Amino acid sequence: MEPLAPALVMEAMIQAYRDPELEALLSSDNDEEQSTITILRQNAAAAGQIDPDLDPDDTAAWVMARIATLYTSTATDPSFSPADQLPTLRLILHRFLRPNPTPKPER
Fold first, then answer.
1. How would DSSP label each residue in 74-92?
2. What is the DSSP secondary structure assignment for residue 45, as one 8-state letter?
3. What is the pLDDT of residues 16-61, one digit of tens each?
4. How far from 40 is each of 18, 49, 71, CA to CA, in Å?
5. Cα–Cα distance for residue pair 52/49, rounded to 1 Å
6. Which residues of 46-66 are buried (b: 16+ CB within 10 A; e: fewer)?
7. What pTM was computed for the model?
8. How does pLDDT run across 73-87, given as a tens digit for each residue?
9. Which of 42, 77, 92, 94 is found 20 to 30 A from 59 (Cα to Cα)?
C-alpha cells in the first residue's frame, strides 16, 4: 500500500536485467517467497481449506504472479488503486484455490 513501492519494485526489476548481483538477490527473495507460499498451500490443502490437487509449485507461481500484477498495474496505471482491487484479488484467489473445484473433463 506504500505509494512508492510499486515504482521501486519495477525499477529494481529493470535494473536486475543489467546487474547480475541484484538479479541473484531478487531471485533469492522470489525463491523464498515461492517456498513460503508452497508451504502455506500444502498446510491449507491438508486442512481441507483448498484444492489438494493443485500442484504446490505451480500454485505458488500463479499466486505470486497475481500479486506482482498489483505492483505492475499500480506502477503503470495512475488510476489503478491496489486497495480498491484487494477484494477482487482475494475473490480470484479464493475461487482458484477452492477445495471443491468443478470436475475435470475426461480425456
1. HHH-TT--HHHHHHHHHHH
2. H
3. 889 989 888 878 878 888 899 999 999 999 998 999 999 988 999 9
4. 33, 11, 22
5. 9
6. eeeebbeebebeebbebbeee
7. 0.68
8. 888 888 888 889 889
9. 77
